[in-house]
Amino acid sequence: MRKECQSPGMQVTFLGTNGWYDSSTGNTVSALISVRDYDIILDAGNGIAKADRYITQDKPVFLFLSHFHLDHTEGLHVLVKFRFRKGLTICGGIGTTANLAGLVREPYTVPLDQVPFAVTVTELADGLHELPFRVTCLPLVHPVPCMGYRFEIDGKVVTYCTDTGICENAVTLARDADLLITECGLKPGQKSPDWPHLSPEDAIHIAKAAKARRLALMHFGAEVYKTIAERRALKEQFEAECPGLVVSEDGMTIDV
Ligand SMILES: [Zn+2]
Ligand SMILES: [Zn+2]
């Protein structure tokens, strides 16, 4: 019989698993890492609006932005609905402060200094940071500056790499990770050299090169994965090659 553990452990909840735009398959990109002392949100696509279904809002909340494409940031306009009683720290690459000031402002939405909780913006250079948890940031391959993250918290390693083509930095960030979360913008066999994204085979290639223990796919291109069934077929197709493969859907929670 399984005994209740004292520590709540680490869970990842997929809030928005579509790339590019919302459709019947889900919302645009956002995920949540829940650990004992913090709630960590990855990207602020429209899925972020569901974050308060899964968190108490009584822990410090961190939001890591990979880049400023709108499918990763359009949900910033709902921040005003939250009540993050221990405040929000928004982390991103160099230039994040200026980009947020341009995007999260009148007449588009409520500016960050007027939402009902304290907001701090932290720009992260490439490399290792103690935030107080350990985060390593490295740039990925995308038409605009885009950051991948490796989180080391409570003895677990979770790596988040979207949007990107295959690159050495993604492998470095995912080295021996307990969970690698990558995008899956492309269908099996599909290539996109001009606008780098990953097919399932590309994502598996990165996970294997890094010896990551588990791979979770999200950011499914809305135009190429038109139904949830098309996503679920990936599990069947690639499970043998990539044991434990997670094909995410909005609202799915996994233990890490
Ligand atoms: Zn994207
Ligand atoms: Zn992008």
Structural features, described:
The protein is α/β, with parallel strands linked by helices. Helix content is 14%, strand content 28%. The strands form 2 sheets. Strands 2, 8, 9, 10, 11, 12, 13 and 14 form an 8-stranded mixed sheet that branches. A 7-stranded mixed sheet has the order 7-6-5-4-3-1-15, with no helix packed on it. Strand 6 (88-92), helix 1 (96-103) and strand 7 (119-123) form a beta-alpha-beta unit. The two termini are 20 Å apart. Residues 1-6 have low confidence and may be disordered. The structure holds zinc ion (ZN) (2 copies). Residues 19, 29, 69, 71-72, 163, 219 line the site of one zinc ion (ZN).
Percent helix range = 10-25%
How would you sum up the global shape? Answer: globular
* Number of helices, counting only DSSP H or I runs of 4 residues or more: 4
Helix-strand pattern: EEEEEEHEEEEEHEHEHEE
Query: What does the largest sheet look like?
Result: 8 strands, mixed
pLDDT averaged over residues: 96
Structural classification: alpha/beta
Distance between the termini: 20 Å
β content, as a range? 25-35%
Low-confidence stretches: 1-6
Q: Indicate the radius of gyration in whole angstroms.
A: 17 Å
Strand segment tally? 15
Bound molecules: zinc ion
